[in-house]
Amino acid sequence: MTQTLTQPSPPTADPSTLKRAVIAGVIGHFVEWYDYGVYAYVATTLAVVFFSSSNPTAALLAVFATFAVAFFARPLGGLFFGSLGDRIGRQRCLATVVVLMSLSTFAIGVLPTYTSVGVLAPVLLLTARLLQGFSAGGEIAGAASFINEYAPGNRRGLLSSLLPAASATGLLFGAVLMAVLTANLSKDGMNSWGWRVPFLIALPLGMIGLYLRLKIEDTPMFRALVSAAEADPAPLRSSVTGQFKWIAVAFGATLTYGVGFYVVMSYMPTYLKGVAHFDTGSMLAITSAALITHIVALPLWGALSDRVGRKPVLIGASVALVVVTYPAFLFIAQGGVAAAITGGATLGALIAAGAAPLFAYMAEMFPTRVRASSVSIGYNASVMIFGGTAPFIATYLIDRTGSQVAPSFYLVAAAAGAALTLALAPTSKSSHQDALRQS
């Protein structure tokens, strides 16, 4: 199972252009995932504002169901923007998705509530979330292709690890913002207008991301492809017919990060407050420790993957999570603040190892002409099925089993699936790797 496609050797970007390209990709990614992730941080308030309060657990499940449903739009967005990116270029698609994400997030901040319009409120919320999902589906494959096609071969792991670091930084920014709001507003103030603030901020952030992405030209690899008249007119069809086995590898390899990110990084504030019963200050400390550890560890793991290879780091992370996740959740659920910080930080560091090499690993599987389409299909399908449903499944498992550590079982299963996929996957022989050796 090898890749044999040929493509022109790409020119390399000068250091100044590379720096601007990385900043454009990373800043835009920060904006995208702040917009997308802040929903989870406001989940308990949204349950009150957008759904009937007669059953709090049912309302929270409805919020997370809305969160999960948005992920079903991600493959559609990935198919649309991935195919478009392979035909017209990464840069224009990335500029478009950051605008769409910012506008749909801003729209949530101005929606009427359940008390104002009844069942229309959750319908409008769902519509905005679907638009967010459509945008997010186009972001990750475009950004991964963009960064990896600019990066020199011996730094792809390091530079592409900045994408998940930007995602986590966006979540951290959202967590800190919510902590400031909850510390300075009463419960009534949060329920009446405070919850809107994180969503309204999305608009100016989006304009910054758009400006940066419009200021950089498309990648050297894509421009070389266009110059050689070798761009694929039907990249989506070519991906499905010619890259299916590698797409399946990308699907499985994503499980550790896809589930880990949404169980630990996104769902954690709700878990700490509603299940482990930490106060707001402790919740912020624990969440921040996990996120900061995750962010700091990402470039370290990415740099390691440049030295030892992507698969050893990814497999090691997945196996470690199979072993460590359950005791880490025991620390979080049954220990004090210090124990919970230790558990959260440990999970954050290991999930970083499952994320840092992932985007370079996926990008290196596929030739330039179908890269964005192929990564979109594998990554977004995995996150749709297993990642987006993680907060809902975690809440459901706790409710049904009565166990505070029930979410750990889901992450253990996902990590085991990723480890098995990676262990069975052969080494890619794509022409992109030939270009990597030349760079």
TrEMBL record:
Its keywords, alphabetically, are:
Cell membrane, Membrane, Symport, Transmembrane, Transmembrane helix, Transport
**Where's it found, cell-wise?**
Cell membrane
SUPFAM superfamilies tied to this protein:
MFS general substrate transporter
Q: Which domain of life is it from?
A: Bacteria
- Can you give the residue ranges of the Major facilitator superfamily (MFS) profile domain? 21-431
Free-text function comment from the UniProt entry: May be a proton symporter involved in the uptake of osmolytes such as proline and glycine betaine.
Q: Which family does it belong to?
A: Belongs to the major facilitator superfamily. Metabolite:H+ Symporter (MHS) family (TC 2.A.1.6) family.
Stated name of the protein: Putative proline/betaine transporter
Its ancestry begins with: Bacteria, Bacillati, Actinomycetota, Actinomycetes, Micromonosporales
